[in-house]
Write a structure and sequence with these properties.
Blueprint: E1 58-64, H1 69-85, E2 89-95, H2 98-109, E3 117-119, H3 124-132, H4 140-146, H5 148-151, H6 154-157, E4 161-162, E5 169-174, E6 181-189, H7 190-195, H8 204-216, H9 231-243, H10 246-253, H11 264-278, H12 291-299, E7 305-309, H13 313-320, E8 324-327, E9 338-343, E10 347-348, H14 356-366, H15 369-378, H16 395-409, E11 411-413, H17 423-436, H18 441-458
Parallel strand pairs: 1-2, 1-3, 9-11
Antiparallel strand pairs: 3-10, 4-5, 6-7, 6-8, 6-9
Helix pairs in contact: 1-15, 9-11, 9-17, 11-17, 11-18, 12-13, 17-18
């Protein structure tokens, strides 16, 4: 998610108890912390038990952050089906918000009562650090046993690959498997655009003009709740692509050396964000408004546009109906549609999981083709077979088409918080200060560059 929702950008869950009857022989149950070299070892494909019915009577502890309506509906239905197919396995599920899971995961992985399945934000500061500490299971053997590399595109799996020492992001062993796709784009109220005599923006210049037109009509142009800091990254990421070539953004966001946050293009992008905030385009106090409050306000008539993630669509549509529309941002500076996106938080297996084989079977089940159909039916966006499963109408039709267009013909940019272990905090605070007028864009760029350059110099 998210992600974070994402994200993080910008995305989260917590725990419960359970009984592990097969803990003594379960892969990963005695893998330890992995030592300084990182990377919790996983089983070879030949050692994996792929028949859940053969695992005996067990309880599987699952932590996830699928808390919103469509997300929760899908995971609940899949758990019910999984337990019906395998009545020997009881799924003990606990879900929390993305932010709460972020706070709980590190403690859980270093404690004595770890879950068997855990959604982990795949940023360097989260998944990367857990890999380095040896706290996650290498899923390569499971991927071979279940054929995940045949089912998932390389570009999708790359979002959950790290070298065992976590130095390289995007290559190496697999540490998680996602269920859903994500894309950040522009939500808009069709009736408000009509009232303004405007069309959906075909270019960034059209979008800037639309913001000005809304302000002149005493409408709030853009809705942003940035109390938690990370939501601004989902606004800035798409905006950045108007000024900065997509390959440079990928380099910055993946934490690879060779780019520079202080170049003119990035400062221009930060300046545009600052100008929007200073003009009141985001409302009176976006930094004092909670993320969930902001999108709920949008559904009640506040604002014309909301730049945010695809995960918001089903819940907002439940209130706004056909008035809610979604589009990918206009083409960026290099002529292609580029926007922040990727996958939902991958499902991982802690290195100390008592029921690793059952955990892998569960992950395989909730990412199957049948699961993709169910996710789509419930209103979510599956990461696989997306174009085939697009609905015939509604905001999810817009979202699926945008995701397909960006991921096939454009550039699905990494979440910016992927860059370094500390970048989520650094960028969140820097963008909040830019929006609040406490920091000049050039100073914010220096702050971002300091974090990025320190990390890449030591990689």
């Amino acid at each position: 998610m998210r992600r974070l929702p994402r994200r993080l950008f910008l995305g989260s869950s917590a725990a419960a108890g359970g009984l592990g009857l097969l803990a003594a022989c379960a892969p990963g149950s005695d893998s330890g912390s992995g030592g300084s070299d990182g990377g919790g070892s996983g089983p070879a494909a030949s050692d994996v038990e792929t028949d859940p019915a053969a695992l005996g009577e067990i309880t599987l502890k699952v932590w996830d952050q699928e808390v919103r309506g469509a997300q929760n509906d899908a995971i609940e239905a899949l758990i019910e089906a999984f337990q019906k197919d395998y009545p020997n396995i009881t799924v003990d599920r606990v879900s929390q918000s993305f932010d709460d899971l972020q706070q709980q995961t590190g403690l859980a992985l270093s404690g004595n009562d770890v879950p068997d399945v855990l959604q982990v934000n795949n940023a360097r500061g989260d998944m990367g650090e857990f890999v380095k500490a040896g706290q996650l299971t290498d899923l390569s053997g499971y991927a071979e046993a279940y054929g995940w590399e045949d089912r998932f595109a390389d570009s999708v799996l790359a979002k959950a690959r790290y070298s065992a020492d976590a130095v390289t992001f995007g290559e190496g062993p697999l540490w998680g498997l996602p269920q859903t796709g994500e894309v950040c784009g522009i939500y808009y109220s069709a009736t408000k655009l009509e009232a303004l005599g405007a069309e959906p923006p075909a270019s960034w210049e059209d979008l800037f003009a639309l913001v000005e037109a809304a302000q002149k009509a005493d409408e709030q142009p853009l809705v942003l709740g940035n109390l938690e800091q990370w939501p601004a990254l989902h606004v800035f990421g798409p905006l950045q692509a108007h000024f900065v070539p997509s390959d440079e953004i990928v380099t910055l966001a993946m934490g690879n050396a060779g780019a520079d946050w202080t170049d003119d293009a990035n400062v221009q992008a930060l300046t545009q964000l600052a100008d929007w905030a200073a003009s009141g385009a985001f409302g009176d106090s976006p930094n004092g408004l909670a993320y969930d409050t902001a999108w709920a306000d949008f559904t009640k008539g506040t604002g014309v546009l909301l730049i945010g993630g695809s995960w918001l669509g089903p819940d907002m549509e439940a209130v706004m109906g056909e008035d809610l529309r979604f589009m990918a941002p206009p083409a960026g500076t290099d002529g292609t549609v580029a926007t922040t996106g990727g996958t939902g938080l991958p499902f991982a297996i802690p290195a100390q999981a008592a029921q690793a084989d059952a955990a892998a079977a569960y992950i395989d089940y909730i990412t199957s083709d049948t699961a993709m159909e169910l996710i789509a039916d419930k209103g979510g966006m599956p990461v696989l077979n997306t174009a085939d499963l697009a609905p015939s109408s509604g905001v999810n039709k817009d979202i699926y088409e945008a995701f397909d267009a960006v991921s096939t013909d454009g550039v699905l940019l990494p979440y910016l918080d992927y860059a370094t272990p500390s970048f989520a905090d650094t960028a969140g605070a820097a963008l909040q200060e830019v929006i609040g007028g406490q920091s000049e864009p050039s100073a914010a760029a220096e702050t971002l560059q300091a974090d990025y350059s320190e990390f890449t110099a030591g990689s």
